[in-house]
Amino acid sequence: METNSSDKPFFATCSHPAVLRSICINCRQKISDHHGLRFDYINRGLRLTKTEVNRMRNFETNILLKKKKLILVLDLDETLIHTTLESVSKEIESLQDVFKVKLTGFSCTVKLRPFVLEFLEQASTMFELYVYTNSYQAYAKEIVKLLDPDNKYFNSRLISRDDSTLCGRKDLDIVMGQERTVVILDDRTDVWPNHNGNVIQVQKYEYFSPTVAKSKSKSFGERKTDEDIKIMKTYWKILKKVHSQFFDDKHDHDLGSRDVRGILREVQGETVVGNKSTAKNKVAHVWMMAKKMGACISLQL
Structure pTM? Predict the structure, then answer.
């Protein structure tokens, strides 16, 4: 590494597509850490230029479409699992889908959402699966081991808050696929400011009692019951419908122009998830119609 007259480290710049651990893969020069986008979840220290990212996205998308697969990005907490730092009863600890996870400095108890393992197995046949979480990487890795112990679903496609390019937010800029082929399953839409049209907002899964009491009703754990598996099955039905419409055999020739966002607007407008109350169904129906017509929905004034 060279130094300039002020004895500050000198970093070369180049137009090559990839840098690994601050060294250009092509010219072997020391490159600034601000070069391109970080892809640590693929390879520690890997940075790619936007041109290279676009090239790889297009390449990966073409491969997936030939396999008749889309991309499914999954949130973790309160979407696929629920976690508590509090102590839980022996009855809950003995359940097959409840796990103790030990991390540096703390431990937690994790409950898998009903039907989640079957969901992942089925979804992997039609989608390339990613996890994208605002949790820290060390925690996320332990949770993914519970969901995918043999690494056959995610294949290290785990994006944590340490990898995200937006602080406290999520973005598809580091997902290796064209946005038009990506479906997102998350209990929150506000964390996806640039990709609301790709999101299927799932009903929040909360098994354990909240640390701060939110209501007088007992949690699933306190009632010794659990969420109906029909909820996750409903989301799977939506995903299958999106996949089916995207790969409609009648229009195989125009896959290059298909976009899941248009399909999602239609499918979600037809499906009300998670609540059978007639009044709430009507509200949900109006909500989905408004989104389909381009409205920006807010729960706050």
Answer: 0.84
